[in-house]
Amino acid sequence: MTGKGITVAGSLIADNYYLIDSYPEQGKLTNIRATDRAVGGTGNLIIDLAKLDANLQVKVSALIGAGSNGRFLRKTLSEYPNIQLQNVVEGDETPVTIVMDAQDSHQRTFFYLPGASDKYDENVIDWEQIDADIFHLEYILLMKKIDEADAEYGTHGAKILHTARERGMKTSIDMVSETSGKGGEIVRAALKYTDYCTINEIEAEMITGIKILQDDIVNEENAHKALRELVKCGVLKWAIIHSPTCGYGIDCESENIVKVPSLHLPAGYIKGSTGAGDAYCSGILYGAYKNQSLEAAMRLATACAACSLSETNGTAGMRSYDEVMKFMKKYQ
Questions:
Q1: Can you tell me the distance from the alpha carbon of 65 to that of 304, in angstroms, rounded to the nearest whole number?
Q2: Which secondary structure element, helix H or strand E, spans residue 251, and what is its range?
Q3: H or E element: which one contains 222?
Q4: How does DSSP assign 7-46, residue by residue?
């Protein structure tokens, strides 16, 4: 890599948390005991990368609003000197997730306002501002314009990935977990122009049609089949499928498959899983940026995800690269 950094493009979301007694029946009332606000969406991955390496240029491309949620996102991200916000454009309303966290059931309910996220497209992107070694597009299946059909490339997102490649960048994608199966064609269009694909087992099933989870246990043979199917879809460098117990990856050039189990965490360690997938993805992207092997990148990603689990907030648990490596050696 040339040292131009990593660009993260897509839905930058303000997460608003409400701690409630219980989730009420329709028409009923419940008490709100505490509130909080955090960066969500691409913000989790952006901050994770910035914390992994304070010298890494993390470039952001997003469309947000000018109101209090937009100002909060800018202020929070600007606290990290290596995060570059020159291509964060104001327009429409900031995407917001309202999270209702019930104390009695410990279940969270989510309400999502797409706002500007549905209008994000290539017109927002200043290619000179976000020139990097790796261009990561997040989240496919969450952004209306990105998922729209394109006569030449299949989708608008695929067109953006093609342009990034033409400009000399390696490309990477992430997506939201969608279980209806309707998004498979949209994702497969993007995979034709993807170098690094990092998804979970549910997403892999949706894309490939191969059943990976059986009785909540990963079928290893089918995980391998799904990885090979992702290569057939066009992934050029690495395809990775991660699950709570294990990660599987394939080097698309050598066709070698790697298995990396989760770390052995002590009882009571896990405080929350919010942002763990983003933390995992940050490890993969940083490993690719540093020209690590697939296995080394997956081990880093596994440790990053485990660090994330130590806090309820999506980014509070992330640490520097050296600290993550020490953590990995302790619990591998």
A1: 31
A2: strand 246-251
A3: helix 220-232
A4: EEEE-EEEEEEEEESSPPPTT----EEEEEEEEEEHHHHH
Rounded to whole angstroms, the Cα distance separating 39 from 75 reads 10
Triad 143, 148, 152: Cα angle to 5°: 135
E strands of 21-125, at which residues? 32-41, 58-64, 83-90, 96-102, 108-113
Rounded CA-CA distance 234/255 in Å is 13
- Provide the CATH number for the domain around residue 290: 3.40.1190.20
Residue 105 lies inside a defined structural domain of this protein: no
Distances (CA, A) of 64 to 38, 181, 197: 15, 29, 26
Maximum alpha-carbon separation in the chain: 58
Question: Using one digit for the tens of pLDDT, what is the confidence trace for 31-53?
Answer: 999 999 999 999 999 999 999 99
Contacts of the segment 30-36: beta carbons below 8 A, 24+ positions apart: 33/103
For residue 256, the enclosing domain spans: 6-12+40-91+115-331
Provide the token pair at 173: 């994608």
Banded model confidence at residue 268, pLDDT cuts 50, 70, 90? confident
Q: What are phi and psi of 330, to 5 degrees?
A: -70, -40
Contact indicator for 191, 174 with CB cutoff of 8 Å: no
Token digits of residue 210: 């191969």
CA 65, distance to chain mean position in Å, is 21
* Residue 35 maps to a domain: no
Residue 5: phi and psi, rounded to 5, are: 95, -165
Please report whether residue 100 resides in a domain.
no
Structural domains counted in the chain: 1
Q: Write the DSSP symbol of residue 194.
A: -
Q: For residue range 311-321, list pLDDT tens digits in order.
A: 877 888 899 99
Q: Is residue 155 part of a domain?
A: yes
